[in-house]
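Structure (tokenized):
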């Protein structure tokens, strides 16, 4: 795995711009994200922490942190959304109960992530 740029914590939960370059395997990345969440930003979802703290040029893709089944379910929702179809025959009320619940969760999470990413990009563009 390539080295990751990790923002360092300073006392009081402040963040400095210097980045540490470190080689991490997937378990170490998850541990770092969990530590940042538990110790500094318990109100932020883990995927937002991954996006904010693990930056370019080796940004952590949140889907790389999930198991194959979860990745498949996210792909299923994306395909159904793109092609305007449902995974099972029939209409919405013919789908298993987990399908609309899962799709709503994925859509809400994706929208939250995109909103946060857009906010970050706006902040960066204002500082430049």
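Design, position by position:
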């Amino acid at each position: 795995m390539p080295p990751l740029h990790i923002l360092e914590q300073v006392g009081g939960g402040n963040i400095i711009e210097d980045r540490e370059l470190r080689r991490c395997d997937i378990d170490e990345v998850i541990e770092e994200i969990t530590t940042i969440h538990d110790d500094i930003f318990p109100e932020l979802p883990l995927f937002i922490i991954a996006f904010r703290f693990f930056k370019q040029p080796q940004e952590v893709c949140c889907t790389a942190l999930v198991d194959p089944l979860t990745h498949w379910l996210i792909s299923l929702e994306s395909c159904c959304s793109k092609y305007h179809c449902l995974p099972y025959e029939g209409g919405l009320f013919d789908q298993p109960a987990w399908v609309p619940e899962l799709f709503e969760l994925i859509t809400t999470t994706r929208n939250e992530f995109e909103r946060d990413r857009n906010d970050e990009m706006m902040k960066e563009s204002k500082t430049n």
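Reviewer-requested clarification: Helices lie at 26-39, 46-53, 68-83, 98-127. Residues 1-17 have pLDDT under 50 and may be disordered.
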